[in-house]
Every structure is written in C-alpha cells, then in structure tokens.
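step: validate -> pass
step: tokenize input -> pass
step: predict -> running
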Amino acid sequence: MTTPPTTAPDWRALFNFTVMSAYFYSFMEWIFFVTKPSSLSLLTFFEKLKVLFITGGVIALILVAGLVVFWLPFWMTKKQKLKYLGFIPSAFILSITTLILFDNFTYTVFKFGVISAEGIFRAVYALGFILAFRQMTRFTKRTASTLKKSASILTIGLLTLSTAGIIATYFSNSFSASSDSTNSATHLPNIIIIGGDGLSANYMSMYGYDQETTPFLEELARTSLVVENAFPNASSTTASTTSALTGKEPLEVNVLRYPDILSGNDSFEHLPGILQQQGYQTVEIGVHYYVDAQKLNLLDGFDVVNNRSLNLPILDALRKFLGNSPSVYFIQTVTERADERLLHIFFVQEMQNPLDSVNNQKSRMNDEQRTQQIIAALDNAERPLFVFAHFMDTHGPEFSSQFRVFSSASNNDDNKWDTDRYKDALLSFDSHIKEIYEYLEESGKLDNTILIIYTDHGYGYAVNHRVPIIIHFPENAHAGTRLNNVEVLDIPVTLLDYLDISTPEWMTGISMLSDEPPADREIISIVAGSPSKVAPPFYQIKKVQIVICHKWYELNVQENDWKSGLISRHTSKCDADSLPTDDQVRQRILDYLDEYGFDISSLQ
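step: predict -> pass
step: emit ->
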C-alpha cells in the first residue's frame, strides 16, 4: 500500500503552525524558569502568565516575519519547490526547543550538557541539531498540511492574549528615566572602584593584622580616606555590589542574591547612569551572571560589561515599547540561552559556565587579567572613565594567588576556607592594587583619578565583620580616617559629593566627606538563604542583621532564632549603656520587614 503524497499546506495553515511553534518554545522555557529560582520567582501568577504570552507573541512576530522572507521567492516565482522554504522558521524554532529540552534534562539529571561539551562532543551536538532540524522540517511539512480551522481559532486566541498583555504593559510599565543628552566631562576625574571579593579587615595588615598581608595598602592609607569600621549591606556578591552601584538597601530594590534583578525605576536609578549622563565612559569588569549589569537588568548605565557592548538594537527597540518589564528581560534571557548554545556547538564562541566562572580557579578570569583590562581601559579612554571592577582571587571557599608566602607548596589548593591561602590571596590582591597605582603614577593620571577599594562581604560571607573601604582622591585630598560606622551604599553618595553633583533622593547613604556619621547609626544587612528555600513568607531572606556601634544583632527569620554579639576589633566603641536592648532591636527588625510588606506573624 502506497502512502499518499503529502499535501503542501496553504499559507494560513503554515502561519498557524509557525505561531504555535513560537508559543510552544516560549511555554517550555517559561516552565523551566517558573519552576526554579529565577527572575520570575517574585512575580504573581498573573504576572508570570503575562510574561508567557508576551514572550510567545514577540517570538511569533519574529518567526512570522521570517516566514514572509522565506516565502518571498515562491511568491515572486510561483515555483512550487520554493514554497517549502516557508517551513524553515518553525522547523528552526522547534529544533532549538528540542536542543534546550534535551540540554535541560541531561544537565539536571546527569550533570552534563552543552555547556560541558568539549572538542568532538561539541560537533556531536551540532550534528544532532542538524538532524533535529531535518526531522522538524519533515514534521512541519506533515503536520501543517493537516491543520483545521480549529487551529486558526487557537492562533487567534493566543495572539489576542499576547496583544492584551502588550497593551497592558505599554500603559503600565516603567520607561527609561534618563535623558539622551550627556554633558561634557573633560574636567572630571577618572573613577576606579575595585571590589575584592570577601575581604575582611581583621586579616589585613593595614587594619592592624599582625602579618603583612597588605603592605601596599598600608602605604596607600597614609594619603587616603580610610574607614575604620565599615560593613556590607548583604552577604551575597550580587546584592552587595548592587548596593555599591545604586546607593540603595537590598530590600529597596529586591535584589538579595543572583538571579534577582532590578525592575521598574530601580533599573535606571544608579551611579553609572548618573556618571554616563555627565559624559563618562562606563565599564564594568566583573563576573558573568553574578556581577553583570546586563544580567542584573541595570539599564542605561554601562557602555561595556564584561567585554560585551550593551548596544542591543532589537532589545532597545522592544524596551522602548514595553518599558522595563519582566517580559523584556525574559525575552532577552531565552534568546541568550538559544544563542549561546548554538554558538558553542558550532564552534563560534565558547559557552561560559556561571559556576566555573566563580568557583573554578582554572576556568575563571584571574585578577591579573582584570588588572590589565583596567589599565587598557585607561589607556584607550577618550573621555573620563568610570570602571567598576570585581576581583575574585580572594573568593572563598577556595582561594588563588600569584605566589605563596603564608601557605606552603604542600597546602592542598582544594582546602576549603584555608586561612593561609586566604592571606596569600590578600597579598596578591594588594599587589594588583599596587600595579594599578603605579600605572596611574607613571602615566600622569594619578592626580586625575579617584581610586576606591572596598569589598562585597567579609571572609566566609560574613556581614558582622569589619570590611575595608579606602578612597584615594586626586592630590591626596580628604586623607584621614572615619571611625564611626560606614556602609557600602555610602560609596555612591560620597562620589557625587566630591564631584559636586546633586545626590538624588533615592540614594540612602551618607557622604564620607562630611563629618563623622552618627555613632549610633543603624546599618542593616541581609543574609540570603539557599536558592532551594525560596518560599513565602521571607523568600530569599535567611537573616536580617543590624549593626549599631560595636555590636551586631541578628534575627534568623527562617528559624526564628535570635543572636547578638560584639564586633571583633571594632575601633570606636560606644558606652554600653547607650546601646539598645536585644528586644528593642528585634522589634526594629520586625518593623523593617513589615515596612517592606513581609508577613511577620511567624516571628511574633
């Protein structure tokens, strides 16, 4: 018995199939992200559905545009063979869907996938994709020709929901708060902010540690503004660096750890955006995913992020219509997931593993490379430069360094939280700062550059340890010390104060150029919990800590456990009688959580 020949679908059937392919791809990606910690985690179910339908509608629009392009040869020549070019858009998106579904499954179950494929295995994936595309072309040819009128009804329903979501987003979402114009910055100094991951003042000789771990910083301190008692605003790198860039507390912007993102006006309210409007060239040298303005959804701030230009015309056009909505960020995310896998398996560009970029010493960029990138940026800058860099050799639990002084060759590099290896990493960090400083001296840029050294959190992700903040201003201005407590989010306010730029109301820090901060100043820090425990009522939050004077107070909101203690080596102690009681601070933490809409009934 012979199989009847396949009937070529008419344009309506192929249009329906192409649209449904777009929604299928969007739905499978949406399911993946909605069932794990992601940028969708804090959205309501209705908002998540809106993201799904807007994403499906936008991708459907792109595929339909492709369908029109591929059918043009048929429409122009009427050659029947060319009609089958119209199968390409839907077959391509279904092949991508197959690749990503397979990759999600193998990586989740067996811990291998496209990202870990090397050499010939990349070619195997590429061959698999080509075979999948061939099969999907046949599937499209076979299936599209059988579609009935009911498919048109489904297509109309999906597109109607997408259109409704797009219209609602257009009239309700946030658009860029920045102006397109920039001022001349020829008279303004370069600004270099370097955050060393996990630096604790208690291990740094410039803060009195009895071993010489930071000899150059000791010299730099003599001509710099040095904060004796500084504290981070969060235990996670993503949250803390966000505070350093925005001057806002983590709960103000709902960024407590990766993959939290900025949203609404918060995406446009930040230091690099202000500096860019003043005419600065802005560069971020961080860590993919974890210190990455693009992943953070920090918009209109950086020209270059982790060696990538943020000039993305298609997304910029989409953002002008949909504003800074979760849908735009999700579309960007799923597009990147497809791009990076295809580029990897076809040997165009290697896909980066976010965990390796942080934890694997052999895979991650080392701090010498970051140092050279800063120097190259300064060399090539055509206008005042703002660099926000995050150094990783001091990142625990495994540390790396250029040399061994405190640890011996017999020390196992895989030892977790080895303090001798940590001290070597501090010494290595110190040498990189010296290299940058000497470049500034030799190039004549030192007296036109602000150099800031700070950290995201203390050793072991601690937020109740003193951390360094050192600011070297041009011509050694403002050299001296600040004894009372300072926090990381004070850095942007201090810079704007020095530059004589008005501080926006949304920045909550205090300038270090003014008098000493109040001795009893309240500094709040957030400790993020495990990604697997993101759930109401406190979601990412594990602990809330308050530092007042030389004492820390901490409420574990997940276990309703209370602790307090004295800060080690604090250099500006208050009268014990002036400190609030544990009960008073606990109530302050409860009030603080209540202010931000958290259900605190389980803690009372």
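step: describe -> The chain has three domains: 11-172, 190-308+349-518, 529-603.
step: cleanup -> pass
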